[in-house]
Write a sequence for this structure.
């Protein structure tokens, strides 16, 4: 990304900061989510809040918008100390937030969403004009009468931002705003933010775990690690390397950097593509060497009359990692559901080793040798209130049962074997899953799926929400799995994760594959266009 | 023959009227994501209280008011437990239904309830129309309230801020919460209004249609109303159509023996429920429930 921060306002000594946090501390039980956090942002500045998952960024922001209450510390707006007991108070104080997952009501039209939460009779005409005028002022073009569910994710975000700006806030907070956007859309967003901060004199806080984003879009940056502020920098005077070091606290392997930090090196610097260290894990494999394992042909599926998959075709070879790139919400979930036998196809086929598999029949995909690490490990990956041992046999109860009775001994033996093999850190096999860290929960899911010796492994967002150590572990295991001859389908919205791990890359858009290429042939510009739905 | 059709039509409309009152309230509650299971209890309490009120005060009109208040009272209990204290709404709803059934049955024996009935109002000229005239334009007077209430409910849901809030809550309560609206309060308000409508429906059944209270008078009509809203695809049109359909099925049950057909008595009693269900399934449009339908709202963003 080319735009450099321009005219970064310096912290002026005289005027009070637009927002100042002093010694904010927040505990959840024994866990300290925010530990004595202090930061100060001036008016007209875009301030980056950088940190890994679990660094305490979200908690800090929840405190600012009244969704959580601080245990200690002080919040000052324009030099005045304020209390923010609930979201309404935050909005009265001029604090608005664009949430990571949009807080829009899909069934309603754009203008209805914009007027939601105001008082007085809803005035359709006035609100429509307002949407248009704000749109024109900031370059956020959207049809006020469109239904939100018919809009693309980029357009939805515009609505979300209009909704915030409409209340004329003095502080705008954005939480991981680009995770659902294409590259081009991200650039547009940063232009809008610059306009908001510079022309309108508003204060912007941008939360992100992606380094390039912070470097492109912000004036100052605060870096958080394990609930503490570890560094504060003027963005123009720092670089990726320094930010990464402060954020993680140690050096990282290339793979992990890509997944955890969104390092775009590989994307912007063509010289790196020839770097042998970079390409070591993804040597191009010979097309004929490996047989096709899984083949999805012309798959159509829908739910409640709305299309999920629209003619998706995908071939997966044994021993390769196929990365599925795309903006979130373009059918990735449906594909995962299809391979978990959760949805039925309206037309099209799924074949494993040239045998057609029935779709939507519980257990059919699983029996055919497809293991799935689901997108949401809490919802469909494991049962949080059952023990680690029980979760580990969840999909193979047959192997530890005889004549309808399960053998506790066999369950335990299986658990102990897998816990050792996959380095799962748990007090005992009988510990409830709920008490494990996210990384260890994910290890349990991975261990269970791999213990079945699958032919195909589907990994949907396998590193989402994990800390660096766990990301490292997961990426290595996926790589090992492919090396051992498993066909791996890696679904992710982190383009960098896909680029570093995959042999082949397919791009999904609106429920169909719009392009497929070998990793070595990747051209970032073309990939971005395809993710935006343009044939390239 | 024409006379029989006119009679069946009149009886259909008469039987559907209490359902339509309750259906309008249930429609509003369901739009806000609530499945108002206690509607059966609300209707039954309404029916009982209407006769009780009419007996005590001697005025069937006041009886109608008693009925509405009884529905609101049940709704208040339900709302307090489920949308203030967050007890599971199904548990509370079913408990309330059983409680009201037991209580009204007991009180019916213990008290000496009389009979009371609101008068008919015949609209001149229109009631002389062939076939539909008597059915539509010669009813107990509260039935005409529907002509006002149906558009009023539409207006409230689609033209007021309260209605917008309710519809948004049914789809995405967390988003509504984030904009600073008290979701649970709105849901409590919605439930109280549903209670008033259901109470009115029950009261109409006893004090307008029949003139008496019988044990378990509503006989699962509350559940039929829920079914009407669901199969009606969460639209006012669909809800009203579903209620009319059940009314028609119920009317056929009464009319068939009179027309000379004989059936197994139990099957006959079950027939309107079966017929209505089958028809609703057949006619149900492909429709989408509110996204947060039946899910309790818990504060805080994920």
């Amino acid at each position: 990304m080319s735009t450099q921060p321009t005219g970064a306002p310096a912290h002026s000594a005289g005027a009070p900061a637009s927002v100042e946090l002093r010694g904010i501390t927040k505990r959840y039980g024994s866990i300290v989510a925010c530990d004595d956090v202090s930061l100060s942002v001036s008016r007209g500045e875009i301030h980056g809040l950088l940190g890994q998952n679990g660094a305490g960024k979200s908690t800090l922001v929840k405190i600012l918008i009244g969704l959580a209450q601080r245990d200690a510390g002080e919040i000052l707006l324009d030099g005045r100390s304020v209390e923010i007991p609930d979201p309404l108070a935050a909005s009265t104080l001029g604090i608005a937030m664009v949430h990571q997952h949009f807080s829009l009501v899909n069934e309603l039209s754009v203008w209805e969403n914009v007027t939601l939460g105001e008082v007085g009779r809803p005035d359709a005409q006035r609100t429509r004009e307002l949407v248009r005028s704000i749109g024109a002022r900031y370059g956020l073009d959207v049809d006020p009468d469109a239904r939100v569910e018919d809009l693309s994710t980029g357009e939805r975000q515009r609505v979300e931002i209009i909704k915030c700006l409409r209340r004329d806030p003095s502080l705008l907070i954005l939480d991981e705003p680009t995770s659902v956007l294409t590259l081009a859309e991200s650039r547009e967003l940063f232009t809008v933010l610059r306009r908001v901060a510079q022309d309108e004199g508003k204060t912007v806080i941008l939360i992100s775990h992606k380094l390039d984003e912070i470097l492109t879009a912000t004036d100052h940056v605060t870096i958080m690690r394990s609930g503490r502020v570890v560094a504060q920098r003027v963005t123009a005077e720092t670089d990726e390397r320094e930010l990464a070091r402060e954020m993680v606290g140690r050096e990282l392997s290339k793979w992990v950097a890509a997944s955890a930090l969104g390092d775009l090196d590989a994307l912007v610097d063509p010289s790196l593509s020839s770097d042998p260290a970079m390409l070591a894990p993804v040597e191009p494999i010979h097309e004929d060497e490996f047989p096709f394992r899984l083949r999805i042909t012309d798959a159509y599926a829908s739910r409640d009359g709305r299309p999920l998959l629209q003619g998706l075709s995908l071939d997966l070879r044994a021993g390769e990692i196929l990365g599925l790139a795309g903006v979130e919400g373009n059918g990735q979930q449906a594909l995962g559901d299809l391979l978990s036998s959760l949805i039925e196809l309206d037309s099209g086929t799924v074949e494993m080793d040239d045998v057609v598999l029935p779709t939507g029949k519980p257990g059919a995909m699983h029996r055919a040798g497809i293991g799935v690490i689901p997108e949401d490990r809490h919802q469909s990956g494991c049962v949080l209130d059952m023990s680690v041992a029980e979760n580990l046999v969840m999909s193979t109860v047959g192997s530890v049962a005889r004549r309808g009775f399960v053998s506790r001994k066999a369950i335990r033996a299986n658990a102990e074997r897998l816990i050792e093999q996959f380095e799962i850190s748990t007090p005992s096999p009988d510990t409830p899953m709920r008490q494990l860290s996210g990384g260890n929960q994910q290890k349990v899911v991975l261990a269970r799926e791999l213990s079945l010796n699958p032919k195909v492994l589907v990994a949907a967002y396998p590193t989402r929400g994990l800390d660096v150590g766990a990301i490292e572990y997961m990426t290595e295991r996926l790589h090992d799995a492919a090396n051992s001859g498993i066909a791996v389908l890696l679904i992710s919205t982190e383009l960098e994760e896909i680029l570093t791990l995959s042999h082949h890359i397919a791009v999904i858009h609106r429920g169909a594959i719009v392009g497929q290429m070998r990793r070595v042939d990747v051209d970032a510009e073309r990939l971005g266009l395809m993710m935006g739905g343009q044939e390239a | 023959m024409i006379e029989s059709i006119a009679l069946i039509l009149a009886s259909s409309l008469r039987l559907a009227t209490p359902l339509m009152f309750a259906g309008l309230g249930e429609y509003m509650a369901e739009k806000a994501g609530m499945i108002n299971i206690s509607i059966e209890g609300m209707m039954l309490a309404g029916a009982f209280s209407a006769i009780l009120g009419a007996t005590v005060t001697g005025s069937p009109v006041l009886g109608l008011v008693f009925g509405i208040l009884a529905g609101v009272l049940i709704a208040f209990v339900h709302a307090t437990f489920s949308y203030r204290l967050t007890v599971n709404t199904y548990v509370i709803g079913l408990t309330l239904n059983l409680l009201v059934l037991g209580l009204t049955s007991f009180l019916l024996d213990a008290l000496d309830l009389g009979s009371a009935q609101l008068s008919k109002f015949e609209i001149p000229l229109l009631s002389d129309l062939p076939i539909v005239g008597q059915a539509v334009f010669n009813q107990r007077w509260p039935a005409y309230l529907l002509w006002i209430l149906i558009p009023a409910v539409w207006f409230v849901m689609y033209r007021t801020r309260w209605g917008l809030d309710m519809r948004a809550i049914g789809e995405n309560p967390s988003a509504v919460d984030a904009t600073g609206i008290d979701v649970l309060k709105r849901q409590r308000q919605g439930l109280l209004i549903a209670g008033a409508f259901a109470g009115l429906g029950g009261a109409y059944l006893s004090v307008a249609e029949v003139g008496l209270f019988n044990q378990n008078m509503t006989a699962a009509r509350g559940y039929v109303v829920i079914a009407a809203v669901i199969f009606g695809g969460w639209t006012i049109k669909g809800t009203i159509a579903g209620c009319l359909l059940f009314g028609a099925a119920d009317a056929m049950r009464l009319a068939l023996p009179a027309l000379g057909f004989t059936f197994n008595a139990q099957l006959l009693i079950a027939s309107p429920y079966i017929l209505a269900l089958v028809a609703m399934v057949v006619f149900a449009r492909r429709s989408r429930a509110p996204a947060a339908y039946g899910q309790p709202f818990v504060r805080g963003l994920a």
